[in-house]
């Protein structure tokens, strides 16, 4: 059942992206009515697959970078649904779901069920450290995406190009609001993940949290903190916040790729 559900997930996310794409590009009434229902159904299937995988392992189902990719995809969709329902932004789901589709396709194609979990994967500190880390990555990815959309719309308006992005994207103020909301959530999740990671290294007496990725995470966290302080105290423009946000996320992404593919560290998947 786990394998079948895992193989179905990319197809289901492709279907959801297709419906949201029809709504964004064609303003199809049927897509407007069905898009959220389709996505909620896919989320329930993904939740079921994750629960079954956790029961199979009797622990946190993140034994490889491929399983981590699936959990990040799941977190991305949950955060997007919050944006769509609470902030009433429903025209940007296509961009997130296209990325989620490829992320889940990568996971489903390469993830395998392992015979057992290392003891660390059953540690409460590890579970919370990793969960907050995943939520942090997902939140900051969405924040970076909305920063990118902000800049696209900003320069379209500056150049008097009134095309589909002008017609379908939310206002610059709304894009800035979503950017800040998700950046705050990502900042909080990463802060908690770092604290729990430090505690985990002391508990298990292995390595050091302050490896390359740990230090890069702290540097990125500082940038996101600067973004929020700059907006609150110095009233920084949405353009400046967007560029700072994209730079911070690039640092996080770079550190993640370097650690998992080139370096050996506390944060490497084994």
Beta fraction of the residues? under 5%
Q: Mind describing the biggest β-sheet? A: none
Query: Rg from C-alpha positions?
Result: 19 Å
Indicate how many domains the architecture comprises.
Answer: 2
Structural class: mainly alpha
Summarize the structure.
By secondary structure, the protein is an all-alpha fold. It has helices at 2-26, 29-57, 65-86, 93-110, 124-158, 164-168, 172-204, 212-233, 238-261.
Report what the structure shows.
This protein is mainly α. It folds into 2 domains: 1-118; 123-270, no CATH class. It is 79% helix and 0% strand. It has helices at 2-26, 29-57, 65-86, 93-110, 124-158, 164-168, 172-204, 212-233, 238-261. The two termini are 25 Å apart. The mean pLDDT is 89.
Could you name the key traits of this structure?
270 residues, 79% helix, flat, mainly alpha
Q: What's the helix and strand layout?
A:
Blueprint: H1 2-26, H2 29-57, H3 65-86, H4 93-110, H5 124-158, H6 164-168, H7 172-204, H8 212-233, H9 238-261
Helix pairs in contact: 1-2, 1-4, 2-3, 3-4, 3-5, 5-7, 5-9, 7-8, 7-9, 8-9
